[in-house]
Amino acid sequence: MKKSKGVELYYDPFFGIAINNNKRCIMGKDELLLELKQVLLREVPNAVQKIKLNQGDKVCYISLLGTDYEPVLGLITLGIESYRNSMIEESGTDNKWYLWNSGEMPARYQTGFEDQDQTFQQNQETLMNLFGNEKWEEFWEDCQTLRFEVANKLNTYNWSDIIPISDDFVVYSDWESIDVSNGDLAKSIPQEKIEILVEKCLI
Hints:
Layout: E1 2-4, E2 7-12, E3 17-20, E4 25-28, H1 29-49, E5 59-65, E6 75-80, H2 81-91, H3 96-99, E7 110-111, H4 118-131, H5 136-154, E8 165-174, H6 191-199
Parallel strand pairs: 5-8
Antiparallel strand pairs: 1-2, 2-3, 3-4, 5-6, 6-7
Helix pairs in contact: 1-4, 1-5
């Protein structure tokens, strides 16, 4: 038996679905992932707009961070062009991991997602409780794939109508062991945007 938010949840391996203690069907893994994806595509722009920018700030990236505890999405970070320029002036462009390490941005440019959509956090917790304890690597890949798909789709949005952005702005999927130098960014950024980053020696 697994529990989430005080509700008893059971996983039925035959049907691949979750049910609660009233025998009511919750969702299968694929349905939960799809629901989470739809919420992200709808609400990430709204969450980003709530982050207070300083006058003159331009956003050069949005990082969507997945973690072991929040594998779909744990944190949204805005990369600020002026801070990245300072990093380049300090260390050059050779250390790609440093340039794309969202943890280098001030905390005020970060936000969680729990206040944006309560059902998202509940569904992510349900997903973890029911499907995250077995075959972890396969489960993590499912969550990574979702985040790649979300980032790719968000990269097609007209972000200049939402926040002030740089001319090389991108949205990307982030995680602890991301390997920028070996192409991990290309999994969530369209090729035409990758080419711009290459031209600027950012990847």
